[in-house]
């Protein structure tokens, strides 16, 4: 089994899309944030539930709004240019903007839920208005189905109230948009099945969808996708499918590829990692690509184009001269370094004085003329500059995809692309089921490198944060969303992360009925509420467990104080008992006389 286990990213950012497209995206996102802030601000002075949390969310969104404002890059002077450059650097990165886009609809939904709750409260405080409203004659009063519809609306409303999004969680997620991007944690195919809770049905269905039936004359290629927000369990479900018995039985080769976020996406690095994990020598592959006949025409055209541009030629010539200068300085420094033979004792020096070594008799090496060395460096730099042209890059990717296609076509295969996204508008990731063209180059789509014959099965499973992007990649294939964790499965995850945060991971193996943590026992009584507040998301449940684990339990009452309190209460209790007993033993006549005495006193 081959798998991709990349611990450290050395990829370069992919070229950004057209500036115009990015500016339009920023404008739309800016408009959406402004609209949501206006809607929240209109409600914060009302008696709406959760208005304080919504006000804080609005304040954070206003800060974010300043980070998604399109900026111009015109520079009129040194200082202004530096200021514009600093302002450009403050724009939210693409992954954070995508995170914000997915978050805004959830915040708006929470706002609508609070509005509905406020309407209910207003009706409760003004029953007369509600009664007047219900007493208005209507033709619907004769409809026998009216009560059923009203009951259905109430039931749906109750479900919506139960599933109300936690404003505290939304505030934290909104604040997270402003936090620096964390180092990307690369995923692997390794999975401890005991640590994945639930989703057995979904794993069975996906595994079955990836295996093409026997006996068909068409393509044996299948594709499926898993879509969902960050932390919803996409990777865990994909890992469960990857180690599924049906996958092991039907695919001789299984490959796990972690694609990563947009600013780590590099198509060359992605393909080289895949070929490396398939057992190919990447150094030889690079040499084959560099000398390929498919690349040579594009490189020659790029070189010719550069030679016809005097400004580029001058820039490359200056760089070549700088390289020659640095090389000469390095050689001069090496000559000035003391020879190791000079550090000898005096006797050895005396014996060797006047001796002529064979080394001294050898003539000095002939150095190439300076002009020839300059031309050699210039040609190398010219080739490197030409290789950066889009046409040469695309042709190289096409050769890599052809090598990948030929390698995979020898056997049945299953590939998982984890955290893959449809970057840009060139469609390189779209329609993975499309076969390669019979003629022409292959650099247009990743799918060209995936064989789709009728001799061996082929399957691709991808995880993606955007469901529309996932569907554009798998087309007619199945796309699922990880369902919310069942409370029992969620509680297993909660217990594991709780004990792990406390440094007591071994206690998780103990039966939960025998938990000796009093605080955890109290939390267990609220497990359904905790799961609902976390929206059933594994990442939110894990973070909640860590937060509860960090809380300090309230100290128990001091036993000495309890004993003292009991002692102090004993006399009072005794007096009360004595008075009660005296009252009980009081004779009827005495009671009447006492009442008469009381009357006389009055």
Structure description:
- The chain is mainly alpha-helical.
- Among the domains are: 19-75 and 86-133 and 154-178; 193-297 and 390-480, Rossmann fold; 484-577, no CATH class.
- Helices cover 57% and strands 5% of the residues.
- It has helices at residues 19-41, 51-67, 78-89, 94-125, 127-135, 146-162, 167-178, 200-210, 234-242, 245-250, 267-277, 282-290, 296-307, 310-336, 346-352, 358-361, 370-387, 390-408, 467-474, 487-501, 518-524, 527-533, 538-549, 559-585, 588-601, and strands at residues 221-227, 253-258, 413-418, 458-464, 478-480.
- The protein has a 5-stranded parallel beta sheet, sandwiched between helices.
- The longest helix is centred in the N-terminal third of the chain and has 32 residues, at 94-125.
- It is globular.
- 24% of the residues are buried.
- Residues 1-18, 73-89, 132-141 and 577-602 have low confidence and may be disordered.
Care to count the β-strands?
Answer: 5
Percent of residues in beta strands? under 5%
Question: Structural class given helices, strands, pairing?
Answer: mainly alpha
In whole angstroms, the N-to-C terminal distance is: 102 Å
What layout of secondary structure does this protein have?
Elements: H1 19-41, H2 51-67, H3 78-89, H4 94-125, H5 127-135, H6 146-162, H7 167-178, H8 200-210, E1 221-227, H9 234-242, H10 245-250, E2 253-258, H11 267-277, H12 282-290, H13 296-307, H14 310-336, H15 346-352, H16 358-361, H17 370-387, H18 390-408, E3 413-418, E4 458-464, H19 467-474, E5 478-480, H20 487-501, H21 518-524, H22 527-533, H23 538-549, H24 559-585, H25 588-601
Helix pairs in contact: 1-2, 1-4, 2-7, 4-7, 8-9, 11-18, 13-17, 14-17, 20-23
Domain NB-ARC: 223-288, 376-500
Region (Disordered): 1-31, 63-99, 112-161, 298-374, 552-602
Pfam families: NB-ARC
